[in-house]
Write a structure and sequence with these properties.
The protein has helices at about 15-20, 80, 85-105, 145-165, 185-195, 215-225, 245-260, 280-290, 295-310, and strands at about 5-10, 30-35, 50-55, 70, 110-115, 165-170, 175, 200-205, 210, 215, 235-240, 245, 265. The chain is α/β, with parallel strands linked by helices and about 325 residues long. Strand 5 (about 110-115), helix 4 (about 145-165) and strand 6 form a beta-alpha-beta unit. Helix 1 (about 15-20) crosses helix 6, helix 5 (about 185-195) crosses helix 9 (about 295-310) and helix 7 packs across helix 9. Bound molecules: nicotinamide-adenine-dinucleotide and uridine-5'-diphosphate (UDP) (2 copies).
Length: about 325
């Protein structure tokens, strides 16, 4: 029988790539989204496929559908978006997880949670491995996201221990690629849009903080592998690209690729901004047979081409 796969947050950046990827295999795909940060344009090209269905729904409310697999991605991911309505962000992570876990329990579906490297907070262990418990401020401006995602992980593991659900938890590190919003506020989209428009490049703080950027196709490949992994393998498993850069180095590479004359200007560092971040991906390599393949240079080329078309037509 064809699998019925539900993706919450399916109209967002990652969700839309996941919908597209899953439609390449047999089965039906149900995209559930309240369009808080997601957009219909992201999935418009899939609407002609009779195996694809879209439902406008907020996951903080119960949902009764019959499905075999659930990818739970619903949650704003960019700091400016998740801090815009922080109470709603926590509700989406926590109430959303409870509802989707309740649904998975009723229909005996396998359920995957899109968790985040933010569960490690401003890490004291570098690179971050899954056994590290993190250093998170529970009352700061990022807490609605970080603690919401941490509580969602707790719920996943309690439904696994208490109700024997088949859970899969991936901790996603910074991911970029086509379909990020130009006004999303995340660093890759900000720098590319600024460089293409000849505007100043906004470096927060000294620009010496680091991140490790994974191209979207690599990330989606890992998520699908995780969903298909053996029953007993729950994770959490880190998914990301371990090549680490400072924000200054990222800006230089984007300026080089866009041939832009934009200047680098320094802006205040946001509160609780993690100083360094790099995944230890040995568990993903061993358990999923996965490693990222796309270099930052190649991934940026695709992403810049996307934004060029979006901005200049
Ligand atoms: P995004 O903002 O593009 O996508 C989130 C989607 O969830 C949007 O389509 C939005 O409309 C939807 N949504 C938000 N609240 C909802 C609600 N209450 N009910 C239904 N839908 C809701 O962000 P993204 O980058 O695609 O992130 C997807 C998931 O991956 C998120 O859970 C995020 O925390 C996680 N993640 C992403 C990254 C990254 O670098 N992109 C890193 C770590 C974790
Ligand atoms: N739920 C849902 N869809 C379902 C089943 C449950 O949205 O198909 C929601 C329901 O609102 C419930 C939550 O998931 O409050 C948790 O369900 P669970 O069965 O774990 O707990 P209970 O129903 O006892 O609260
Ligand atoms: N950043 C920056 N300029 C920007 C946007 C972000 O220097 O215009 C920095 C930000 O301070 C952080 C890093 O880039 O150190 C990554 O930020 P992003 O919002 O993309 O993701 P997150 O902080 O959640 O990793």
């Amino acid at each position: 029988m064809n699998k019925r796969i539900m993706i919450t947050g399916g109209a967002g950046f990652l969700g839309s790539h996941l919908c597209e990827r899953l439609l390449r295999e047999p089965g039906e795909v149900l995209c559930v989204d309240n369009f808080y940060t997601g957009r219909k344009q992201n999935i418009a090209h899939l609407m002609g496929d009779h195996r694809f269905e879209v439902m406008r729904h907020d996951v903080t409310f119960p949902l009764y559908v019959e499905v075999d697999q659930i990818y739970n991605l619903a949650c704003p991911a960019s700091p400016i978006h998740y801090q815009f309505d922080p109470v709603q962000t926590t509700k989406t992570s926590v109430h959303g997880a409870i509802n989707m876990l309740g649904l998975a329990k009723r229909v005996k579906a396998r359920i995957l949670q899109a968790s985040t490297s933010e569960v490690y907070g401003d890490p004291e262990v570098h690179p971050q491995h899954e056994g590290y418990w993190g250093k998170v401020n529970p009352i700061g401006v990022r807490s609605c996201y970080d603690e919401g995602k941490r509580c969602a992980e707790t719920l996943f593991f309690d439904y696994w221990r208490q109700h024997h659900l088949q859970i899969k938890v991936v901790r996603i590190f910074n991911t970029y690629g086509p379909r990020m919003r130009p006004d999303d506020g995340r660093v890759v989209s900000n720098f590319i849009v600024q460089a293409l428009k000849g505007e100043d490049i906004s470096i927060y703080g000294e620009g010496l903080q680091t991140r490790s950027f994974c191209y979207v196709d690599d990330l989606i490949d890992a998520m699908v592998r995780m969903m298909k992994s053996p029953d007993g393998f729950t994770g959490p498993v880190n998914i990301g690209n371990p090549t680490e850069f400072t924000m200054l180095a990222l800006a230089e590479e984007i300026l080089r690729q866009t041939n832009s004359a934009s200047r680098l200007v320094h802006r205040p560092l946001p509160e609780d901004d993690p100083r360094q971040r790099r995944p230890d991906i040995s568990l993903a390599q061993k358990s999923l047979g996965w490693s990222p393949r796309v270099s930052l240079e190649d991934g940026l080329k695709e992403t810049i081409a996307y934004f060029r078309t979006l901005i200049f037509g």
